[in-house]
Structure formats: structure tokens, C-alpha cells
Amino acid sequence: MQTRKKYIFLTFLASWLLLFFFGGDQLRRFAFFPRRSAAARRSWPRWADRTLLHSFAEPQELQGDGDTAQPSPRARRAAQLRASQGSLCRMESCFDASRCQKHGFKVFTYPRERGEPVSESYGKILASIERSRYYTPRPEDACLFVLGIDTLDRDPLSAHYVRSVEQKIRASPLWNSGRNHLIFNLYAGTWPNYTEELGFDIGHAMLAKASFYSENFRPGFDVSIPLFPREHPQRGGQRGWLRRDSVPPQKKYLLVFKGKRYLTGIGSGTRNALHHIHNGRDIVSLTTCRHGKDWERHKDTRCDQDNADYEKFDYQELLHNSTFCIVPRGRRLGSFRFLEALQAACIPVLLSDGWELPFSEAIDWGKAAVVGSERLLLQIPSTVRCIRPERVLAFQQQTQFLWDAYFSSVDKIVHTTLEIIRDRLIPHRSRSRFLWNTMPGGLLALPDFSTHLGDFPFYYLQHGSGPSDKFTALLRAAPPQGSLSQHTLRLIQAVSRSQYCAQILVLWSCEKPPPPSGTWPQTTVPLTIIQGRMKLSDRFFPYSAIGTDAVLSLDEHTSLSTTEVDFAFVVWRSFPERIVGFSAWSHFWDPEQKRWGYTSRWTNKLSIVLTTAAFYHRYYHSLFTEYLPAGLRELVDSLAACEDILMNLLVAAVTKLPPIKVTQWKQHTEAVSQLQDCLNQLVDWFGSMPLVSSQLRLDPVLFKDQVSVLRKKYRHLEKP
Known about the structure:
The chain is an alpha/beta fold and 720 residues long.
């Protein structure tokens, strides 16, 4: 009996299992398998139910489908794969480094396509390359190639969109599937999704792109650049707004934003939520709907009030008077507001999830910006309030350094991009993060000179070291008759008697051979003759014979005593990053001529110290020869004393400091009009006037005091 019941039970159970597997759809009609109602299907997780967790969001926000224009990760990845066959490219696999071994890091720009105009911004990028030291007109010598076709704006709805790019680049024999090519881009994709689609296959080319999405960014291969406006200056650029007298760092407003509010589409979610943090006192968040052609058709209940409040504040005034500036995403991840905040020393608060920040490979943005999350917008006010005042000031100072070093002009943006790529090619001679993030910055710290901090004149304090205690005298001699004058011989003897002199180098810049060794004066230090090329710029060539940090630059017509040399060197060791010398000029702006001028008359100001008798660090020889383009050196070779001005401009541009004059030295002849032209041409290349004026002159202790001469260390300086 028990066995029979057991078989009946198993048969019944097996029948139910068969019915469940083969007739499941019919089972759902039964009352004990009720169909889920439409109301039960929610777009938020179960843990957000009212019975489990109180929601602080509006019900319509939770029930909505979110930002429907936001592309899914799969759509973004598909767009990336369509744009690039080399999505897994690295320098080792998609870049031919052998092209860079023979001629170094040289860049070739494709010739412009006839009948194909380029935008103003792309024209500036090409000009930055072609006027730089990287440029070569010979493609066979090039390490890197840049297209002549404008690829900045790849929005098909834009007037600057260039069609049939892929057919044009494939027709070039230099394309080589994009290998060793760099493509610049500011705008990718179009309405409504604004994906990173470029509209052509970039192959194995590198991308220098604005608004780079981190999922599509190829680390160590691509370069993220900032979005800059069409009016961005070609070179130089305006200074930052932070001044020495602007501390303490607190300003009228703590946190501000003023900009467009997108009513629909991608990017609308973040900007639509900014009104939640506005308090009208120290946090000002203003948006306007009044933009675009059909804004009235989409306007919401807040638009009228937002538009009215928007007109009550001036944008420039908010930038000047705020400590933090919100930089939310726009239609794309980047915006012009980022560079505007940097220049204004308004610490950027970034709300753009997934944005690969500009030059993130080199720049430590944690020292200059607050990187927030779009989903945690309401936490931003409390976060910035917690930052200590001294930390705020450090952030502001770093924004000014980064703006001036890498972002204030198109030249600096392009050159930073190229230097990052160059560092990848020679990793053992690449710049450290410290060099990139400390004044004067990576562009002015040449790794070919050294990668050791203690070898640069501006890092002695951070490194805890100092310059060497000896100097090398470099005397340029160009006697018209090929024979040394008694004046030159006396100068050599006076310099050699200095207790700090290590050696004397004579740069012979004369067609006739130098005199035999027996005619040179007997010195206690080595004296070496270097055959020059009879160019004025030769005096600033980085000769390997210079073995000391300090260089005493001399001219054959200079007159110096041993005491003057000793005192000037002692002063220079306290200011190793500056030029320290005897003869000074000052520059001025001529409002009538609307140009720069300078004078050698004795005034209360100085901004130029002539290198015919001056100390400076030997690093400036490398910077003069390797950093400046050949065109500038050719200019100074054609004008006497123009090399003095160029060296002073270069050192001032690096240090942002004036030179130092020592002792009451002899009057120099007045500057001629030809040199006024030199100054203005050089300022035009720098993009602004880098010279800094000073009223400081350093004399020995007790100089000219009415005390016994025996109490004075440099007593010979007072002799007439």
C-alpha cells in the first residue's frame, strides 16, 4: 500500500514538472501566478522603495527615463571603434620611433589643400608648429606628421566641417595608415548624442583632442587638449589675474556659475540641477534658457525667472570676485569656461564625469582644481567650504602657473602637446611630474640639458643645493686685425686673478687665425681658445668646455677689475637664476610711436643688464640655442647687441624676475634706433613684453661710507 502511494506521488510530481517546463506561459494565467502590473515596473531599484528608504528626489525624476540623449556605453564604444581601427594603439605598436633617431623630433605639416580653407584656430595650430624649433620642411626628415586638412570641427552641421577627409588623406603617400601622424580635434559628433565620431578612420594616428572621454582615451598615445576659443591668442597671451596684493584669498563670492541651461538633450541634467545650490549670498548659480532657435518651445516654469536673474550679474565681475568657479559639462565634456577660470585664478570645480583632463599625463590637476561628480552636486558647497585658506591660496597660485605655462596661447598648447609626445619617445630623458608642475614648467626645463633638479638654476631651493663655487669666463674676441690689444690682455689677467675663476675660454670670432700660444698672457687658470663661426649668437652656444654652473660673459672691450669680478660672483651665487652684471638699460613704452624703446641713461629703473660683463647660469646657453627657433638667432646675428636683448628677454620670460645690477659702473653709449627695432621684433615673437623693471642695485657693505678703508672687504671698488 505504501509503495502504491509512493508511485502515485512521484507520477503527480513528474506531471507538474512537465507542465511547468512545457506550458509555463499558460501557468501565468492562473490566479496563484498573477501577472505583474505595469505600475510595479519601476525605473529605480527595489531598495529605493518608500518602505525601505526615504527618497529625496522628486517622483517624476525617479519615474522618468533619465537623459534619453545620453549615449549608452555600447554606443560610445561602437563610435570609438568606427573612428579608429587602432583603438588599442600604443607608442610601441603604432608609432615608428626609428624615424626620430637620425634627425631628432621634427614635425612636418602637410601642404594646404588648394581651394580648401582652414579655420582661424587650425591656422594658428599650423603656424605654431611651422614657426617652432620642431618644424622641418622636409618630410623625409620628419618624425611626426600633421595634416594640412582642417580636422578641428567634425560636426557635420558646422560650417567648418570638411567633407571627404578619408579619401583625401588616403591619397597621400605619407599617410601610411596614420602611423606617426597627429590629428587635432576640438569638436566631435553632432546633435543629439554628440559622440566622439570624427567621420573618418584615423587608423594608427594619435589624437590631440578636446573633450576627450576617458573610456575612449588611449593612455600613453593620445593627448587631451583644452577647448579654446577662436579668439585665443597665437602667442604670448594675457597674464593671469592673481596679483601679489590679492591675499588673503577670500573673495566676495565663494562659488559661482553663470551660463546656458540646456532644456533638452545631452548635458541638460547637470546644468538643470545647478539652481539647487544657489543661495543668492556667497553662492551664485545663474542660468538662462534664452539661447538657440527653439528655446521658447521647450521652456519650463523656471525659464522666465532664470532669465531675469541672469541679467543682474556681470560674468567678468563674478570671475574676478569668486574663489571657486563651477565648470560643468556642456553638450560635450569640455567648455571654454575651464580656461576662463584658470586665467581668473578662480579655482575650477569640475562637474564633467568621464572627462580626461587636458595634459593629464603631465599636469597634476589635484593641485589646481576640485574634481567633483555630477551625481553629487549638492555636496559641492560643503566640500569647498572645508578647504583651508592656505590651501585655497596654493590652488590659486597653481592656476596662474598652469595658465601662463601651458594654456595662455595656442603656441603653448601646441608645444605642450608636442613635448609630451617627445617625452614618450625618450623615456630615460623625459621630464618628471615635478618639472611639469613647478615653475617655470616643462616647456622651459629641457631634458636634453638634464633631468636632475640640482642642475637647473631655479630648483636649488627645492633641491636643497646651490651652484658650484667657481665660474668659467667666456670672452668673445673679434679683433679686426687678428691681433690682441693690450686692453684685452689686461682683462684676461684681471679675471684670472679672481679666487673664484676656474678657467677662461676665448671665443675667437675672426677670419684670421688666433695668435700663437706664446703671445697670450700667463694665467694661473687654464686658458682655452675656441674657434667661433663669426656669429653674434655664438657667445651663447652650450660649449662642452664650460664645466661650471656660472658663466662670466665678457666682451673684448670690457674693462673690469679683479675685485669687481669677485663681488659680482658672490652676488650671483645668491641669485643663480638671474643675470647679474654691471651695465644696465631700461625699457619703456613710447605712446607716440606706439612701440617699445629702451635707454642706457642712468635712471632709477633697470630691466636689461648687458651680457658684455655679466654672470648667469650655463643652462641659459642651452635654452638660448635649443629652445629658441633658428629665425630668432638669425635676427640677432644681423644686429649688434641684439643678442644681449634676446638673452635678457629669455631669462625674464623664464623667471618672471628682473636682472640685478652691481656697483656704480661706467656709463654705456646710448642705444641706437636699429636696436629699438630689434626689441620690438623680439617682443612680437614672445607675444608680450617679458622684461621686468627693478630699482635695485647691490653694493658691498660700507660702500662709499665714511669709515676706514681697511674695514671694507671690496675696498678697490671705490677707486675712481
